[in-house]
Amino acid sequence: MLEGLIDRIPMIFAVAIPAILAITLHEAAHGFVAMWRGDDTAWRLGRVTLNPLRHIDPLGTVVLPAVMYFTTGFVFGWAKPVPVNFGRLHHPRRDMVWVALAGPGVNFVLALVSAIIWGFTGPQGGATEMWFRAALEVSVLVNVVLMVFNMIPLPPLDGGRVAVGILPDALAFPLARLEKYGMLILIGAFFLLPFIGRELGMDLSVFSWVLGPPVDYMIELIRILSGN
């Protein structure tokens, strides 16, 4: 058993490193854009940094993404949220949208760059090149899933903040009030429902229903843009 685990260590790192980079840069981007738009809260707390130790949550950033990748093929995780005082932004409602889009935007760029670099690797390379090629493939998947998941229009996810910023007040205010229940809704939809479905012999995999088609679309778009 121990020998089998040791054999899997290179692949574990091939998953963990892209996941850490994706989540770290996602959070740092939020803090950077918030500082650019007038709120230096994240900067003063040392969160506008590329140091992953300032952002990672051991369970959500490393363990869970690796476990989900090996068991489901999907990747889900989180980092410590970057604090943003939206009231200090130059134009709070409009700038909230830019702050929210920064994280998914960085993930799209990382996925595209990973796909471009992947094109310079070959399937017949040595062990190191094969490991690097696998890590790049994971990077594309991790960044696309993180981007798509965060764009679900439910606060406190980035897509929810974007929706609150662009919808008319009659829709934005009720949506904003859902923020304190948002994570409970997500946990129920993505974890509890599939568990209940397995017990009942039903497919209630909301995760794949919601994320599957847009993830496939974005990976195909990245394949076209990168030429790979």
TrEMBL record:
GO terms for molecular function: metal ion binding; metallopeptidase activity. Its main location: membrane. CDD domains: S2P-M50_like_1. GO terms for biological process: proteolysis. The chain crosses the membrane at residues 12-36, 56-76, 97-118, 130-152, 181-197. Belongs to the peptidase M50B family. This is Zinc metalloprotease. It comes from Azospirillum baldaniorum.
